[in-house]
Amino acid sequence: MPGYNLVDEPWLTPRPLGGGPPAPMGLAETLTRADEFEGLAVEFATQLPALLRQILLPVVADAIGAPRNLPEQAARFARSGFTGDEKTKILAYLDEHRTRFDLFDPVAPFGQVAGLRTAKDETKGTATLVATAASGNNVPLFASRTDADPLDLTPAQAAHWLLHTHCWDTAAIKTGVVGDPQVKAGKTTGNPTGPLGQLGVIVPAGPTLYDTLMLNIPITPPTELGLPQWKQDPRGPAWTPRAAEGLLDLWTWQARRIRLIPHQDETGELKVTRVVISAGDRLTAVPELEPHTAWTFTPPAKKTASALPERRPRRHVQGKAAWRGLEALLAPIRQSNGGVFETSVLLDQISALQEAGQLPADYPLQVETFGMVYGNQSSVVEDVIHDAIPLPLLALHQDGEAHQLLLDVAEQAELLSRAVNNLSADLRRASGAEPIPWDKGQRPGELLLHNLDPVVRRLLVGVRRAERDDELLERGRLAWEQLAARKAWDRANALLFAVPANAFGGRTADQPGKAGKKHTFSLGTAADNFRRQVRDILPRYTDAVRAAAAARPAYSQDFTEPFPGADLDY
Q: DSSP labels for 198-211?
């Protein structure tokens, strides 16, 4: 069977700067020309962090070393690409370990276990590798194929899904294999998801692939790097729970034992249609050195005088845009009603680079977020989380105007959403119905957040361009509040126009949260409550409305705010 070496074979598809179709190429060429590409094109969003962590970042960090301090990291950014010496080191490194990058090596296939088999030599279709394919209980919505349909993968596709499985695989029961002493009744139980499935993954991205690589390698002493999987002894079928031994071990974590089974089709083309997947190493805990997540500090389970808050990875919320989690992204440490947050070490270091003058304030930083939503005891994939937002570097500084502006915007959007939901609940009570349960159906506040999404993204770009111009930032604040108010009233008007006639007279019922205390709910009181909430949430908008009203003729000064069907024109 011919080999397929990832060093040279065209399995990666970098996107050229300035546009144009991605050109497939090998690992060596992709890395040494990293400054010529925008990034990597992938078939499935969550493959990107898997490619970065399982192969690209560890090769670079092990070949040329991770930056040991901020000046060294700044010098790498200043070069905008690998030097001739660094390219030579990367090529020499790949040549030295070439045999370990062969996907079908008979002794040590890349990311796999040679000869891995079950007691009955059973294999499964490659659909078990592919998160979007029907496989067993994992049947994606609107899937066009069934578990029985063969799924031929090219070696390049198989490599992508192999790395994806190590990072994101589902939990629960895995096939037992020969040589695994922990197999019981032909299977292993209690398997966790892949390591990234336990995180809310945050990947900073720059304008080139080179910048993205530099942004994602944290400052790390050589003694804390450890070894990537291809510099360790080849894996066997046995596995163990253990701690990560350094950053490179964590990045190249072998969460499963896998064997790809290739064959040549009738045209002689190499394909992968069958696979063996079994239990792999289990992380005993997410280590402190994990760079691709934000953190939440929660009260200790056992409340004693010496107990410290527990530091847990902060996971992304399904259906929630990345900008709605700015409170965790923008703070080295931030305390709010929901707990104490700490941003990823990578964003913290990017902030330090900018503060030291090594990155301009208008540097086009993107932050991509990734997550997996599992169901049925994490044994199936229910949804994939992926978003990307422009993040102004100045917003990473806690004492800056841009920082507070963005936190305020995210909070105001959430409060407006709550105000719309409150309006909906009051109108339903006035009509004799019960409010929509918070966990059922689509609440109108979510529709408002959807409408505000493009506004916030435009604002993020504007804040980046404004840099340190506080006057411009203040104008941006006012523009945001005016647009947010208009969209909130658009959503409110849709609710007000839809109520039945009996809502005008209203209905007397128990006041929410105050048993035994009666309150009359009507269209008028609901609209007044909503108007009052909008005034409190958007103070600049409110002041602008009042100033506009004061400048009008006396006969029109009563119309100081949008009412159903109205719109303000500043």
A: GS-EEEEE-SSHHH
In a domain, residue 7? The reply is no
CA 541 – CA 476 distance, rounded (Å): 12
For 203-246, the pLDDT digits (tens) are: 999 999 999 999 999 999 999 999 999 999 999 999 999 999 99
Contact 394, 467 (CB under 8 A): yes
d(CA 329, CA 295) in angstroms, rounded, equals: 10
Q: How confident is the model at residue 563 (pLDDT cuts 50, 70, 90)?
A: very low
Q: Give the CA dihedral 325, 331, 333, 334, nearest 10 degrees.
A: -60
Token pair recorded at residue 481: 């509040």
pTM of the complete model? 0.89
pLDDT at 492 > cutoff 80: yes
Residues 6+ apart with CB under 8 A from 450: none
Residue 562: pLDDT above 50? no
Note whether 132 and 264 are same-domain residues: yes
**Strand-pair partners of 511:** 514
Q: Residue 202 is encoded by which pair of tokens?
A: 């945050």
283, 298, 317: which is the final residue of a domain?
Answer: 283
| C-alpha dist (Å) from residue 229 to 101, 102, 203 | 11, 13, 22
Supply the CATH number for residue 411's domain.
Answer: 1.10.132.100
In a domain, 50, yes or no: yes
Question: Who contacts 215 (Cβ-Cβ below 8 Å, separation ≥6)?
Answer: 204, 205, 206, 346, 350, 365
CA gap 257, 237 in Å, rounded = 6
> Once rounded to an integer, what is the mean pLDDT over residues 405-431?
92
* Cα separations in angstroms, 412 against 446, 532, 533, 554: 14, 14, 11, 32
User: Residue 384 falls within a domain, yes or no?
Assistant: no
| Helix (H), strand (E) at residue 45 | none
Domain boundary among 267, 283, 299: 283
User: Residue 472: exposed, middle, or buried by beta-carbon count in 10 A (0-12, 13-18, 19+)?
Assistant: middle
525, 459 contact by CB (below 8 A): no
Is 164 within 8 Å of 255 (Cβ atoms)?
Answer: no
- How far is 276 from 256, CA to CA, in rounded Å? 10
**AA identity, residue 350:** I
Which single residue is written with the structure tokens 């500084």? 397
Question: For 150-170, how does the pLDDT look when each residue is reduced to its tens digit (9 = 90+)?
Answer: 789 999 999 999 999 999 999
Q: How many domains does the chain have?
A: 2
Helix (H) or strand (E) holding 512, with range, is none
Distance CA 194, CA 254 (A): 9
DSSP state of 279: E
- Asked if residue 379 is part of any domain, the answer here is no
Domain that holds residue 409: 399-570
Here the tokens at position 548 are 């506009």
Give yes or no for a contact between 247 and 94, defined as CB atoms under 8 angstroms apart: no
